[in-house]
Amino acid sequence: MAESEKRGFFGRLFGGGKKEAPESEPEAREEDVPSEEEVAQDLPAGSGQAAESAETAQADASVGSNQPLVMPVALAPAISADPAAAKAPVDDPDSTDAADEVTEAALQPSPPGSEVVEFVDDETPDVDAETLEPESPDPETSEADTPSSGHDETQRDESAGEVVETEPSPQTLGIVASGLSSDALETPAPKRSWIQRLRDGLSRSSSALGDGIISVFRKRKLDAETIEELEDLLIQADLGADTAMTITERLAEGRYDKEISEEEVRRVLAEEIEKVLAPVARPLDLDTGHKPHVVLLVGVNGTGKTTTIGKLAAKLNREGKKVMLAAGDTFRAAAVEQLRIWGERTGSTVVSRPIGADAAGLVFDAMKQAKDAACDVLLIDTAGRLQNRAELMAELEKVVRVIKKHDPEAPHTVLLTLDATTGQNAMSQVEIFGRTAGVTGLVMTKLDGTARGGILVAIAARHGLPVHFIGIGEGIDDLEPFTAKDFAGAIAGMTN
Ligand SMILES: Nc1nc2c(ncn2[C@@H]2O[C@H](COP(=O)(O)OP(=O)(O)OP(=O)(O)O)[C@@H](O)[C@H]2O)c(=O)[nH]1
């Protein structure tokens, strides 16, 4: 057989020797990739120039181990307020649902410790990048020196700076204090266990893989061509070329001319994937020697940063930690409101600024507030940004520099949220966010949907970055520690 005929789909398509996963375009999901109109509204007018090809992210995953705080899988009764509702635009008729839920109980105070601290622009002006040189002890705060935040100036709220007192909106009070969401008023369907949601979420990948491999084995004898087709299947599932080769080699061992059972295929798949993932499945250790331990959340739009902050705050608060939240997404009003709701739900103080304020300035204030209040942990939200928007990535670098003005070792933890429905594009997110913000660990969200997830295997094989948590729902308890065995089993379609 001619060489060209032997090669599998990608070999034939790209003609290469060692196969690489197909270069993905940025994910075409609507929520991740803004339309032109959305870009005009939500993202700064910028060059949009592609970021240069990323080098391997050298994020240092090590966090000081002085009195490490290991976050357990603490589950508490779910609170029904739904911060995701805050994502609804103000004029969205659906967004009035929460307001409708105001009850007498809404007049009850927020949970203890819950408080919103909002800064006024002219009291705490923006931080200028020029002032971040080491010799300057504190950022200068000249308005004239303040560069654009990188967002469209026309989108700034003209009323910014007028807000003095911030009280929870009636809408917020209603859903928080009443403790009743619209879901809770209906008979709730029994909630599937987290492992079931994970398996269901990854079932598309697992059936495609399992079925594909079985059909390849059933139809023909195992030979070079079959092995190449197997590799193609695994690469299409985003597992990466190296892992694909390892798996096919394992599957092929001693099986020439033999049939292979479905269970055997799934078992070998799960074992090999687990081997790759086991070294990166690491709990999030927070060094309580830092006051506060600063955790920065970064990622592409809509990947679940704010939601993950809320879930983390809940876990930490249950452990008795004093937590502060910084609404560093100063661009999107709904993001600030969403974080405020999470603050109320979890009894955490929220530091925010009016929309349009400089994110670095807000973060500078939050660092000071958290230090003054002797907080254990400061969780900083940031605006979502596509990793190929150079000007937005520069803004993120500025945020990191401002944090270091307070504590050169901070941020102590930088978490990148990856949406599990994303394919190859997640690899470049890891590389570019890793280089820009020094990502120390990953959280893969939305594994309860129609997830893909295979890319995490390729990311683990290439970067070895710790994966701390998986998001398996929008609720406060829907954040689970990442475990290699469970994840590998779910991708391989194992049922136990
Ligand atoms: N099903 C599911 N939905 C999730 C999960 N995590 C977050 N979401 C939802 O995804 C949407 C986006 O989440 P956010 O937390 O607002 O994402 P973000 O990264 O802060 O968004 P931007 O600020 O726009 O960049 C919300 O509707 C969340 O409720 C998850 O694990 N599972």
The CATH class of the largest domain, by name, is: Alpha Beta
CATH architecture of the largest domain: 3-Layer(aba) Sandwich
CATH topology of the largest domain: Rossmann fold
Question: Proportion of β residues?
Answer: 5-15%
Strand-and-helix sequence, N→C?
HHHEHEHHHHHHHEEHEHEHEHEHEHEEH
Task: Report the structural category.
Answer: alpha/beta
Features:
alpha/beta; Rossmann fold; Four Helix Bundle (Hemerythrin (Met), subunit A); nine-stranded mixed beta sheet; two-stranded antiparallel ribbon; 11 strands; 38% helix; elongated
Helix and strand arrangement:
Elements: H1 3-6, H2 9-14, H3 36-42, E1 68-70, H4 96-100, E2 115-118, H5 170-177, H6 182-185, H7 194-201, H8 203-219, H9 224-236, H10 241-252, H11 262-277, E3 285-287, E4 293-298, H12 305-318, E5 323-326, H13 333-346, E6 349-352, H14 359-372, E7 377-380, H15 390-406, E8 413-419, H16 425-437, E9 441-445, H17 455-463, E10 467-471, E11 479-481, H18 484-492
The structure holds guanosine-5'-triphosphate.
How would you describe the overall organization of this protein?
- This protein has 496 residues and is α/β, with parallel strands linked by helices.
- The chain has 2 domains: 83-87 and 96-142 and 159-179 and 282-492, P-loop containing nucleotide triphosphate hydrolases (Rossmann fold, 3-Layer(aba) Sandwich); 197-280, SRP54, nucleotide-binding domain (Four Helix Bundle (Hemerythrin (Met), subunit A), Up-down Bundle).
- It is 38% helix and 10% strand.
- The protein is built from 18 helices and 11 strands.
- A 9-stranded mixed sheet has the order 2-6-5-7-4-8-9-10-11, with helices on both faces. A two-stranded antiparallel sheet has the order 1-3.
- The model is unreliable at 1-81, 85-115 and 119-185 (pLDDT under 50).
